[in-house]
Amino acid sequence: MQPPPSDQQTPRPLPDLSDMRHDDWVERWLPRSWGPYARLCRLDRPVGTWLTLLPCLAALVQAAEGWPTLWRLFIFSLGALLMRGIGCTLNDIFDRDLDHQVERTRFRPLTSGQITLRNALYFLFGQFAVCALLLFAINEYSRWMAVALVPIVIIYPLCKRFTYWPQIVLGIGFNWGMLMAWSDTQNHIPLAAVAMWVGAVLWQVGYDSIYAYVDVRDDLKVGVKSTAMRFAEHGKLWISGFYVATFALWLYGGLALGHHAGYFVVLALIGAHFVWQMMVFDLARPDRNFMLFRSNMTAGVMLIVATLLGTLL
């Protein structure tokens, strides 16, 4: 335990952990009545959308054995944006009576009264309707895969009330597009593709656990659960284990799919990135954990580069 600061020391100011920023592009560019809806589906914070889309794009490259079609890139990108927005809207609807007690979420539109529950539900149904139109752009196998995703997206926000492992359900839903990339491109899902998907699920359990440590004190107060609460002071060990499993599964996936050497070179860089995260990770520094969470976009980009090098060279 560190000693208290002396009179000559200046304590580190507490970081503002709110995930709402009132001076961003939503405030500057959108009509005032649109802003709360943009924030409800997290258009103001696209990190989650990128973390949904990037592994899906990597799977599209693998399934196409090179460059996917522009049409498929467009459909899957729009699908990732919409499904992430639906998940966030559902999350805020279910958590509207809890979010005001959590520092990071206290200014979200529903809990702060910027949007009524009825209007949030109308917005949710509108997002589902647009998603339904995308079903006409994919094959029958993928349509059934998309339908199977809906209950996963709906149940995730409730998981934190009865299990310490909501991140597993989140990872399954977030990365479902990787399986659909194969079903739509190849009309089948090989074992190697499933391994890549499981690796992405475990990767998300790891990085979202880092994110969960930001809220752990508030979560204890309001009575919801997370992997951060399950791991407690052993978080670095647990998250390292998930990252090692991710690396092993992605290594197997590349070997089974016959990827060229470039894939494995970049995969080694992804492994180094995971090691760096664990070296920097600090249970007591939520501001640093925010940064580490966002840094996983770099790992997602590297995964796309790896698949391109592995299939095109």
UniProtKB/TrEMBL annotation:
Organism listed in the record: Pusillimonas noertemannii
Protein name as it appears in the record: 4-hydroxybenzoate octaprenyltransferase
Pathway per the UniProt entry: Cofactor biosynthesis; ubiquinone biosynthesis
Keyword flag Transport: no
Transmembrane segments: 47-64, 70-94, 115-135, 141-159, 164-183, 189-214, 235-255, 261-281, 293-312
Xref: InterPro entries: HB_polyprenyltransferase-like, Prenyltransferase, UbiA_prenyltransferase, UbiA_prenylTrfase_CS, UbiA_sf
Annotated Pfam families: UbiA
Source lineage: Bacteria, Pseudomonadati, Pseudomonadota, Betaproteobacteria, Burkholderiales
Domain of life: Bacteria
GO terms under biological process: ubiquinone biosynthetic process
Gene Ontology molecular function, alphabetical: 4-hydroxybenzoate polyprenyltransferase activity
Subcellular location: Cell inner membrane; Membrane
